[in-house]
Amino acid sequence: MTMSDWVDAISVDEIDEEDVLRWDHDGRTFALYHAPGGSFYCTDGLCTHEQVHLAGGLVMDHIIECPKHNGQFDYRTGAAKRAPVCVNLRTYPVRVEGDRVLVQVG
Ligand code: FES
Fold it and tell me: What ranges make up the beta strands (E) of 26-90?
């Protein structure tokens, strides 16, 4: 792991609490989440069921619900939580420095 793995993604005020934002970087699509209580998380941006952008979905507590077939994931762990999704999402470490959200895209 090197410092260069960390990418300055967004400002902390770009996502309201309990919301999600699409973030594209280096030809890849991610989803960034602002959890209740102020923590940030990052997952792959596309649903593992049919490659739909999760940022168009609904955030409820620590769950992201896919906008297409309402499959659900826990965005903290990437765990698939409700059919039809059965493959977990990949997650990425996030840290906050000042007012910036950094993601270790690996
Ligand atoms: S595309 Fe996400 S649940 Fe089907």
Answer: 28-34, 40-44, 58-60, 63-65, 72-74, 80-82
